[in-house]
Amino acid sequence: xxxxxxxxxxxxxxxxxxxxxxxxxxxxxxxxxxxxxxxxxxxxxxxxxxxxxxxxxxxxxxxxxxxxxxxxxxxxxxxxxxxxxxxxxxxxxxxxxxxxxxxxxxxxxxxxxxxxxxxxxxxxxxxxxxxxxxxxxxxxxxxxxxxxxxxxxxxxxxxxxxxxxxxxxxxxxxxxxxxxxxxxxxxxxxxxxxxxxxxxxxxxxxxxxxxxxxxxxxxxxxxxxxxxxxxxxxxxxxxxxxxxxxxxxxxxxxxxxxxxxxxxxxxxxxxxxxxxxxxxxxxxxxxxxxxxxxxxxxx
Amino acid sequence: xxxxxxxxxxxxxxxxxxxxxxxxxxxxxxxxxxxxxxxxxxxxxxxxxxxxxxxxxxxxxxxxxxxxxxxxxxxxxxxxxxxxxxxxxxxxxxxxxxxxxxxxxxxxxxxxxxxxxxxxxxxxxxxxxxxxxxxxxxxxxxxxxxxxxxxxxxxxxxxxxxxxxxxxxxxxxxxxxxxxxxxxxxxxxxxxxxxxxxxxxxxxxxxxxxxxxxxxxxxxxxxxxxxxxxxxxxxxxxxxxxxxxxxxxxxxxxxxxxxxxxxxxxxxxxxxxxxxxxxxxxxxxxxxxxxxxxxx
Amino acid sequence: xxxxxxxxxxxxxxxxxxxxxxxxxxxxxxxxxxxxxxxxxxxxxxxxxxxxxxxxxxxxxxxxxxxxxxxxxxxxxxxxxxxxxxxxxxxxxxxxxxxxxxxxxxxxxxxxxxxxxxxxxxxxxxxxxxxxxxxxxxxxxxxxxxxxxxxxxxxxxxxxxxxxxxxxxxxxxxxxxxxxxxxxxxxxxxxxxxxxxxxxxxxxxxxxxxxxxxxxxxxxxxxxxxxxxxxxxxxxxxxxxxxxxxxxxxxxxxxxxxxxxxxxxxxxxxxxxxxxxxxxxxxxxxxxxxxxxxxxxxxxxxxxxxxxxxxxxxxxxxxxxxxxxxxxxxxxxxxxxxxxxxxxxxxxxxxxxxx
Lengths: 299, 296, 355
Description:
The complex is a heterotrimer.
Chain A: H1 5-39, E1 42-43, E2 53-54, H2 58-65, H3 67-99, H4 105-117, H5 120-130, H6 137-144, H7 158-186, H8 190-198, H9 203-231, H10 235-240, H11 252-262, H12 266-298
Antiparallel strand pairs in A: 1-2
Helix pairs in contact in A: 1-12, 3-7, 3-9, 3-11, 4-7, 5-7, 7-9, 9-12, 11-12
Chain B: H1 22-49, H2 53-56, H3 73-80, H4 84-115, H5 121-131, H6 137-150, H7 157-181, H8 184-193, H9 197-208, H10 210-226, H11 229-234, H12 243-248, H13 260-293
Chain C: E1 4-11, E2 20-27, E3 32-36, H1 43-51, E4 58-63, E5 66-67, E6 78-81, H2 93-103, H3 108-121, H4 137-149, E7 155-159, H5 167-182, E8 188-192, H6 195-201, E9 204-209, E10 212-217, H7 219-224, H8 229-234, E11 241-248, E12 251-254, E13 257-260, E14 270-275, E15 290-300, E16 304-311, E17 318-324, E18 334-337, E19 344-346
Parallel strand pairs in C: 3-8, 3-9, 6-7, 7-8
Antiparallel strand pairs in C: 1-2, 1-4, 4-5, 9-10, 11-12, 11-14, 12-13, 14-19, 15-16, 15-18, 16-17
Helix pairs in contact in C: 2-3, 2-4
């Protein structure tokens, strides 16, 4: 015997408020992804005069044989793993420092989040200039410090190019990690540390036994966000190296972009998008499970 | 989640009575590292942008240019020859409009998801949460097809619509977490007073969450201003380009004649609005980011 | 002005959580009904159902004979004062008071006049342009009241409006409230957990516990003839002495003393006796029911002393009594009289009143 006239009205209004946003999200997120899965079963490139022709799993078969694709996956994996590793270490150091009380903390905090807020494409320009082989300041510093004898062609050497783009990415996104970790640190009660030190714990023990377990959820969340962003990194690479030299820094996203925009191979590009999406979802789901476990442990 | 600044904890200098305050030294080392790490690349760019071409390519590298090595030439070139004001206007227009649209669509949705207990709420929230993780590269092909089908290439809408959408998840998550913190009595009181849901949202709830709207708006603006991939793909006509794309393409002509000075200047021009935003709204940005990801 | 009726009102969130169970009562014009009970007794849920903020699972709410169940809160012509006052922080006092009227499209002049009247009554004139953040707790409370008063509603609802005030202010505002609502003709429903508020303000009190209406009556009735053990112990301060006793013929033994039972009690082996501390007194000529014991605690309440007595003959049995502070008595072997007309008897099992 429900008499929920008012509830009914509330529900209707609620949906009215949500639907425009949902429609836009469907258009910009759901459509492209679904479309990629669909188009992945077609060949649509210059050989078909850019008309879609159904070709079943041909694109996916081609992908298995495609050395360039596997190389881009490998590059992306290396880039992602090392970026995240260094961001986590540096982000934790910065967050720990910003969690302390000192004069000028507000200013330092402002400075620390600056890299995150700046446009990646422009930052890539800045780092391209810093790593410039001829006039770059990084070479100059290292030569002056006698760490290297001769200037290094950072972006021209396949191995150093990867190091350089990782360095630039770490610079750009460490502050994001630091912000999230700082929020976690600030929610830890000071009492815990005091009680622990009365029990005779050293600061290092406190860090291991209190800080790390309590900010573990923030670490996982920050790494999850960062994983997704690093895995799809485009602008930084496109501007710094364009994927070069010789494909040494070509990430999946760069390969997809080139496939579509340079080779006009829409069908294959779509299949690449679909596979990249699946990899991403898989990792996110695993991380999500891990996060649930962590949160369950915390309770 | 609000970032309440913790009351300044008394410095725990009591534990170690040794004469060297290791903790203090470590702290200041970390702070010095943070400041240098965050600022040095930016400052180097600023310095490059005001050095003469000769000073830029001088060997040894010039760290402290003399007066004769300073110039405003690169900035003047940027606006005289490269028409940078057009890109600034494009970026500003697209970012501001998409930010406003995003707040207009996102906050009502966030309110409904926070308070109105609609069926399917969990589904929408879950989708919004997952979608924040999608890199834009997964979207650009499908969007490109839409843009082509509708003939929207080199039309502001081709950027405004996706930018609104990519900022919607964050807006919904952040605003929802703010709405949930509002005391419920106020809305009950408004209902008794006779406000319907829309009037309540417009006249009571949104004015009360103005700070949250500002926070969210700043984040949305930053993301829109910084976006590169869609701008690169959908805006091919020179007069429609946004700053990141225009700046990145400055150097593209020949490999040997790279305009280092104007490039540096364009970086400075393109980042300046954001530096100002960070300077004035640091606290809000931090608050918004943590509310969007931690509380979601 | 309209009669408020609740018919078989039930609210169930689940099989187990049923905060309101089959409640029926009515409040006439000019009546001031207080819903009182411990926290979790369902009193706020009842108020919210009257307001339309919650929907009853079963039963109806009628205002002026009209079923308002399908009406939204704003269409019921009620006014409500919240515990937190719920003032809109971004509006001035004036705008706050006028907000409900504006939505009803009243003429500006009319709105102004009503706001002026209410603000004069409540002494808000100098505050009209301020924001709520700039007001003291008492002032906010008065703005919330004014916002309700200007509406001329069919029913006033007040949800613990005094509990956020400090003790001193509370007493003063309580007196103001009484005056204000005595001039109003519309029924008032007032929710509180404070029995003093219930006793002083109301013309009718509904005592609630565990979702059930325990007793409905005038403050006097509730105090003098509590319907059951719960009401007896909940109303009255200091709390009534409640003592389960074995029955011996037509009397009970209170330690060494014998207390006669009234003649009309059903024949059961045990019974609960209740007597208020203020009704125990030093014996006078003619008192024949006397209890004797040693005082082990004296609490000075100013006008009177609250003493705790261990009864002779049963070390586990204690009684509390309120004695005038100017009286003289000894701590050892103190005798107290139990006037038969002040003793309440309750059934041991049903806990219902017997006499």
